[in-house]
């Protein structure tokens, strides 16, 4: 079927596909830099182990080893994805110039000058993350450590990151979402659960005392149920993060990563729950398989459901900050990046093409049989034509066109990285 015919089918449902396409193209979605180099970063020895309870598995050729390689790979990805991407950097991706080096507690905006220039040239906003892992000062705890020296170091890191986030927001003219996540926790049954949480709370309080304009810098608190080696207890549990954000609504927002909950919990259902109380929330979209495995985002049921809730709850009006967070080293990293980003775009498009008012009306009137039939029949609407038109409208390759470009890049560029 052609776009024209498909557009009429959607119009009959009351959906204006042209308006949807225009709307989606303007929605910022953060592209995580860490998919390109297996979360290694540049500020410390890249061969060091990845800590904090996260893991990349696989050894596919072509990992970016330098900022230049990462930027070249990002350019390749940017050429393949429709929409409005925003960069998402971890502090460990600092770029030092003229032989200088600074530890994480001494990082400055100038160490992100090259990233700011990269974003500016491409008209991208940039989100930011303090990196509380893969560093000798993890003892292994960071902000919740009983050691005051350790906490001081990481608090200073958090404050430095607020200053860097303010710089990125100012320089690029887009708000900077700054996410606080630590892998702090214990492998086995703790002897004290509340102590680390009180220290964690106080440390975040201290970080957020660093001045910033909350309309431009958006600190987030991300929770996690467990990590590798921290199976029994995480300091920043769901209740901790949510309570912290609720008690500090004028300073920060909660962030939900859909790999960070018990396997039967779904973030799609948590989105409207949080938006009942918070003006803004942030999301890390990933794909857990049995655990927080950070697999590439697919066009699957839960991704579509998350997108439907973002759309239905008015999240595209700046209330939901959307970012990707996964890392796969077992397949072509650029393909992984583009597949996940395109799938999230597909899920958002799919969500925007639904007659939400009608569905809500059927629910409110108790017409659940009709609601079920409508929801099922939407699944076989000619979505593919609208997706192809969206890619064309954004000037990006359609399905079937982009993967050969990745293969070509792999042959020309990636295989030469030994
Ligand atoms: C790089 C990490 O994935 C990220 O900072 C954090 O958001 C996370 O999800 C850890 O599991
Ligand atoms: Mn995350």
UniProtKB/TrEMBL annotation:
Keywords: Isomerase. This is L-rhamnose isomerase. It comes from the Bacteria.
